[in-house]
Structure formats: C-alpha cells, structure tokens
Amino acid sequence: MKSKLLAASGVVAVAAAALTGCSAGDAAESCTNEIVNPDATQVSVWAWYPAFEEVVDLFNQNHDDVQICWTNAGQGNDEYTKFSTAIESGSGAPDVIMLEAEVLSSFSIRDALVDLSEYGAAEVKDDYTEGAWKDVSSGDAVYAIPVDGGPMGMLYRKDILDQYGIPVPTTWDEFAAAAKTLKDAGAPGVLADFPPNGRAYTQALFAQAGSVPFDYDNAKPGEIGIDVADQGSKDALSFWADLADQGLVAVDEAFTADYNTMLVDGTYAIYVAAAWGPGYLQGLEGTDENAVWQAAPVPQWDASNPVQINWGGSTFAVTSQAKDPEAAAVVAKEVFGTEEAWKIGIEQAALFPLWKPILESDYFRDLEYPFFGGQQINKDVFLDAAAGYAGFTFSPFQNYAYDQLQQEVTAVVVDGSKDASTALDDLQATLETYATEQGFELK
Amino acid sequence: MAVLPAATDANTRAMTVADTRALRRQERARRSGTAGGRRIGSHVLLIIMAIYFVVPIWWLFVAATKSTGSLFSSPALWFDDPLAFFANVVGLFEHQGGIYWRWLGNSFLYAFSAGLGATIVAVLAGYGFAKYRFRGRTAVFGMILGSVMVPLTALVIPTFMLLSQYGLINTPWAVILPSLLNPFGVYLMRVYTQDAVPDELLEAARIDGAGEWRTFRTIVVPLLRPAIVTVLLLSVVGTWNNFFLPLAVLTNPDLLPVTVGLNRWLALSNAGAGGEQVWNLITSGAFISVVPLLLSFLFLQRYWQGGLTLGSVK
Amino acid sequence: MTTQAVDAPASAPQRPAGGQRRRRSGIERRQNVGWLFIAPFLVVFAAFLVFPLVYAFGMSLFSSTLATGTKFVGIDNYLKAFTDPLFLGGMGRVLLYAIVMIPAQLIVAGVAALLLDTLATWLSKASRLLIFAPYAIPVVIGALMWSFLYSPRFGPASTIFDLFGLDAPNFLSSDNIFFSLVNIVTWQWSGYYMIVIYAALRAIDPAIYEAARIDGASGFQIATRVKVPMISSSMIMVITFALIGTLQFFTEPTVLRSVASGALPADYTPNMYAFALAFSYSQFNYAATIAFSLGILVFLGSFGFLFLTRKQNGLK
Fold first, then answer.
1. All domains of chain C, ordered by start, with CATH?
2. Within a domain: residue A388?
3. DSSP per-residue letters across B60-127
4. N or C: which end of chain C has fewer CB within 10 A?
C-alpha cells in the first residue's frame, strides 16, 4: 500500500514534469493571439485594452515583416509592477508596452524606454494634436506614441435634474447651487461624488483651476520644479471640501463595486468624466431603467475663459529591453494607425482616439451613442475638450506624488482633520523633501 | 531554532492517545450524565462560533448562484434565482475562451507537482536530520527554522532575477521550483521520524547488510506514511493558496493559477472598462475554486487532524 | 522530553573504551550519508532562500536615487530605516495588531478547542469542520470575500444590524478598518489554531482529570487549571507562528486597499511599505533595507518571546 502510494506519486511527478516541460518549451513564444506570418520578426506587446485581440489580428494580417505577440499582463499598476521588476532585474520586459501618459517620466528616468525620435517618431508627429504629442515627448525626445485620450466632460442624468428643476450647470458656482437645490428638495441621492482616491481625476480638476504641479524636462533629469500648493489647487480643493462638509456631494472611493453601482443607479446625478466615461457606464450593472443620460461640457470656473482638461490616456512605448527596437517602433507607430483599427477601438472598447485622421473624421464627429439616446457626444462635448487641451507635465515619481495627494485629500474631505490650504502646503513640503532625497535639484 | 523540544514534547504525548481512548470515553459518558445543562450551553456556544466561521462561506455559495445584477440588488445572504449558477458556469466556459478552467488546471498542476516535489525533498531531509549525526547538523537545521521569519518581499526581486537568468520567467517552473522550499515540512518530518522510526530497527537492517538507501526505502518510508500524507497535504495547500509568487513571475494569462486569474478579473471589473464587468464569474469562479480543497479537507480529515498534532505547530 | 532526548545519537553508538579507530571512521562515514539525504533540500534552500537573501542584503548596502546613480553607502540605509517615521509607524501598527489579534485568535481557538474536547457529538464534530473550513480558502480569496461582506451596499451588515434596530457601521472607514482586519485574520486562522490546540488536548492523559476531579475540581477549574497549563507548549508554538505572521502582515490589508485606499495608505504595515517602495516608487535598495530591518525585528521579537517563555516551552 505504502509503496504503491509512493510509486503513484512518482508517476504523477513525472507526468507533471513532462507537462510543465512541454509548456515551458513554448511559453517563451506564447502569445494570446495567433501569428499569421511565422517567419516575420515577432514583437512582444503588453496591453490591456478591451477588444485588443482584433486590433492585433488586423495588424498581423496587414504586416508581412513584423508580427505582434500580445499578452495582457494586467491592468495599470499590475502591469507597471511587472515592468518595474523586469527593468530592475535586466530581463523579462516586453518589446512594446502600453503605458498611461502619466507614468512615462517615471520609466524614462530609469532608462526603461527607447527614445523613438531615432526610430521615425517624427513621421507620425503630425497625426496627433499638439497637446497629445507634448504628453509623450520632452524636448526632442519622444518616449511613446499616443493612443487614446481622456478629454473631460460632464455626464448627467437628465431625468433627475429635470425632476428637481435643476438647469444643467455650466460653471462650478451653478454646480454648487444645483447640489444645494437637490439636497434641499430631499432627493435620495446627491449631485456628484468627489472620490478621495481620484488621483489623476483630482489633478485634472486642480489643473482646470490653474494648477501646474510639476515643471520637469527629461532632457535635464536632475531638476524639477514642484508647485502643488498654488492658489488654484487650494481653491478647487476648498470648493469640494466645502460641498462635502455640507453633505452636498459624496466622498465615496472610486473604482469599487459600490461606487460603480452608485454611478448608474441614480445615487449621483452627475458624473464628471473623461471621454471614455460613457464606455465605462455602459459596462456597469444595476443601471436604473428609467435613466436618461446626456453629456455636456465640464463646468468652468470662469465661463468666459473656458479651460479644457484631460483625465487619463494611454500610449505605446518601446522598452529598452526590446530585441529589435526598429520593429518595435513600427508596432508602436502603426498598431493604432488605421481607420479599421480605430473603429474597433471606438465601437468595442470605447476609446477616445488621439490619431487625427479618425479624430477629425466625419464618422467620429457624427457618431451617435445609443446610451445617450442618440446624442452625438463627440460633436457636442469631447472634440472641443480634446482640441482645447494643451498637454500636461507629470513628475518622474508620479506614483509617490499621487499616493501623497490621496492621503492629503482624504484628510481634508473624509476625515476633516485639515483644511485644504494646510493639506496642500503639507503636500508641497513632503514632495520637496522626497525630491531632494531622490537627488533632484529643486527649480 | 528552539521550537523543537517543546513540540516534540507534545508529540510524545500524542503517542499515548491510543492507550487512553477508552478511559476518555468513560470520562465523557460520566460527565454527560452529570452536567447535561452545561453540555447544552457548550453546544450553543460552539454553534454560534461555527455560524461565525461559516457565514462568509455561505455568502460565497449564495453569491455564486447570482447574476451580476442580482448580486448587487438582492439580499446578500439569500438566493435570488439559484438557476443563475448554471448560467455563470456557462459564462466561465465562454468568457475569454474558457480561460478560467485553464487557470483551475494550472492551480492543480502547480499545487500537485510542487507539493509532491516539496514532500519528497522534505521526507529525505527530515530523515537525514533525524537519524544521522553529521557535523554541522544543528547549525544547518537552526538556519532552516530561522528562515520562516524572512519577509517574502525581500526575496521577490532576487528570485525574479535568478529565474530570469535561467529563462524560467513566465514558465510553470517559475512557480514550481521556489515552491519546493518547505522548511516547515522538513521540521515536521524530522520530528515525526525521530519518534516513528526506532533506531534499533535501522541498526538491525544495517546488520543484515542493507545499504542506507535501501533501508530508507524499504523500512523507513512505510513507517512515515501518515506524516508523508500530512506534509503532502500541507504543501499542496500552500502552493494552491500562493498568490504573490505567481503574480510576480507569470505574465502569460494562460499560465496563471486561479487565485491570480480571479484577481485580474477583479481588477478589470473594478476598473470597469467596457464590457469587463464579470462579478458573477468572479464569485462563481471563486466558489468553484475553493470546493476541491474544502472537499479534500472533509475526506482527508483523518490525516490532517492527526498530522497537525505532529509538531503541534502550524 | 528535553533537548537532550531530541539530540540523542541516532545509532546510539556504544563506543568501547579502547576506541577502535576503524569502526569509528565507519560510523562517521555513515553519519555523513545524512548530507546526501538533506542535499536536495539544501539545493532548493540555497537557490531560493540563501541566494536571494544574500543578494537582497547586498542591495540594502547600496543607495540608488532616481536622479543620481547607485553608490555604496554601507549601513546608511539602516540608519535611515530606523529613523523613518513611515517604517516605525508601520511597525507600531503591526505591534498593535499583535497585541489585539493574537489574543483574539487564541481565545477563539482555545475556547473552541476546549469545547470540542468535552463534547463528542455529531454536532461538535460538524462544528469542528466548519470552524476549520476557512483555512482551506486561499487568503487572497478570503480577503476578497470580506471586502464584499464589508461593502456598505452589498454586504449583509445592514440586514443584520437592522434586526437589532441599529445602523450598520462603515467597516471600511479609517476608524473601523483596524477591527475589520482583525476580524478577517481571526476568521481565517482561528480554526487552524483550534485544531492544533485540540490535538494537544486530546493527548492529555484523562487519568489526570480523574485525579483532579477526586480532589474536587469543577469542569471549569479543570479546563483552566489543568488543561490550559498542560497545553502551554502548543499555545506557545501557536503564538510564535501568529507573531511571525502578524509582524509580516501584508496580504489582507493589501487586498482591502482596493476598496479602502483612504483608510489603508501604502505604508500601512512595514511589509506593505517595502512592497510600495520597490514596486511603486522604484526604490529597490531601500525596499530591501526595510524588508531586512523587518526580518531582524521579527527574529528578535519571536526569539525574545521564546526566551521569555522558556520555562513553559521546555527551552533551557
């Protein structure tokens, strides 16, 4: 009996070894998609776009010399953690990687990205708006090719605003008044949520009030200017803290199942959102059947001088571990470089294109969104927002900066233990100390 | 390290269990006769505790039978439309080409191959430590026990580098090889071997002219069977539950174990990217993935309950 | 049994006073076969523990900042770590967890084990399985389940508290997160500890109870004065392992962070801090330092505990 047990274990072990040996052999070449031209150079790509497989297939069918081998290595931070480990250990990174614009500096400072200006980035420069290009470049250097963007607008529940006789707010003052009207009318929900973990979202709202938090140029990586405690940021944070204090807006954390449900069940009447927001809402469960959604421009501080802002947006960068940077650059430049690819991106993944040929096409401008009762939201809202966006500079330690920002915002709007001004002054001091510790010279 | 003597102590006591079973039965019988009221009180307390421990599992079971919509709208602890469970299972077969089942298969593969490997290694080492007095034994053993205290975060980067040096990143080996390390298994095997294998028996085998390896294989291994099953069970559970190692060393979705895979679905659902809300698949997937372990604990009770006594430690 | 017995010579060689040289070297050679038996383990141990540890320790002696290069700094990183408010704050937090969480688990596990030991009905057997069941659930999935159960909208809390006419607390607020985490850990591990303690209880010779009863001890007195002291060595093992686990607290708060990132900052526990430093802030050298410092403190802590309890655990 006993020896039988051991013998059985032996058999299983051998079987297991054979199995793993098998898959170990081809794991290095394993792609989620199928390779159409097996003789061509293969470029490994990490990306988490929904419906990306079709885009990859399209690329592979159209290219004889280069083939994409795609893997979804996780979304956002999951992928960055892997990439970071791979950089530190000197191997294991893909050739091309999807990165949000906000982390480009954090990786380029670690020499993790290839400067694409040497690989023909200039050829495609004119395909993108100035603001979009600024986000991926620094001086002459180009660290990634833009893919999608997040110009911001305001999605609102027309049925709720109508029910309480609230006009669609165009300024933040009107927004505050609307919040009060709604609350006074005894509505079950609130006007909106101000998530303390908004991070990029918070930063965008501050930027609208004039905040330029970082002054950084990859050409001079040892210097950084930090200004997170300017009057604009303080005013914007006070504005929300004040509304939160009166209970006129919620301060629920974003990106949780709870929050997702409240977005669509009528708890929040307004969702200040990026252009990909509609796609987000469409995918959520628990939608109120009577909901009537509409899109409008984001409220302004000064209606006569509108400022457009951006929340999120992703790019393709070539990593310094790329085996064939030239072929990798081709992938980065061309994977979202056709109308066909973009139609998949827009219709299935709800991406907002930064590639001008489609961005400026009639197709995109006139596209009707069933979720908004057929409203042409691009024409009405997001194209203007995208056109007005002038680019944004992030710090090379953006994750740290966001973590600290989140803690300060939480202290102000959730705990109420600080006022906006003190919190942002503290943030300024923390970031300055950190930058100095990291060897930066403060501008 | 010093945990050894005390644990052995408890273990020797365990050896006397069989002799005292009868006495214990009498004792129980007597007590239940005299203190019926207290017995009811004890039962009530015990049941309250059991409810506390089982409610979350009940929740998971109920949640596995709901669609995403009713997951978020119906009472958390009761069924809504139980038949949705089958729709969820179908969903698990359809979503991303049924990758969930692959993850489940990967979990089995990693857990069993690493569990078996770790057990073999531990049995050998435990015997070596228990029955041979070579120079440096105490020092090496102390080091092994001390290793339990090392925080895993310190090891991720160097382990990653080592594995990538040999081109093992993103292969099943990257999960299986590091999982062979099971200091606690070695410790358990040493403690058990010490008591279960009499020196006289080994001596007799040697006098009969059996070599060391043959003695081990034919005489020692059979005596160690209960401990081997326990260590196997614990190693399998350990690898099955592992999360951070596979998270760090695997990128290919086809290679993920079910823990990491479900977590990825969770991240996607929280991020809410278009059409990626699969809460129903997460709950039903999680439920299905815990069933095999729950069942094996149910059916292998005899082993783990006896086995955990071994060192009277974790 | 004592250390002496553990180290009893395996083959009990009775060396003749005369000392036969040949026979002795034969024994020695045979004893060295032991190395062959432990060799496979040592290979794994060297590759996946010793090497990474030495490497990480080497890393901790260098400093690398974003804007400047890498340079050797000796123990500077350690000096920094032990004055770093984030590391010390995290350390204080896990100590607080140790003080609350370990007794909580021990009481739940101990009471359950004592009850099981006196009852032998099908009901108690079923309870034993149910209480142990959470151990079979991967920690990540367990924490994930609780993050649902704690949800203000989807969790059962509101239903349950309504029964008593109370408002459900927000389990994920910064005020309550501490106990919410204590609860998860207690739920996950108590059953395991219960089995260990229960096993030790079963190993006690019932004749001792008989003697105590003749001396007039009540059931409760037997439990507290006879049983608990007799299983103290098992209890100490349980505490040691719980202590090591608690000081390295990581998985549960990391999972809950996805729904309560305000209440659980990235530096909530030292292990989380090390993780954030390495993977979010790219400070691998300092991360290695924090991980090592934590390892040292864990070692001192558990060693100190075993030293203090040396009378009960048989360590002399």
1. 27-73 (no CATH), 77-311 (1.10.3720.10)
2. no
3. HHHHHTS-HHHHTTS-TTS-S-TTHHHHHHHHHHHGGGGHHHHHHHHHHHHHHHHHHHHHHHHHHHHH
4. C
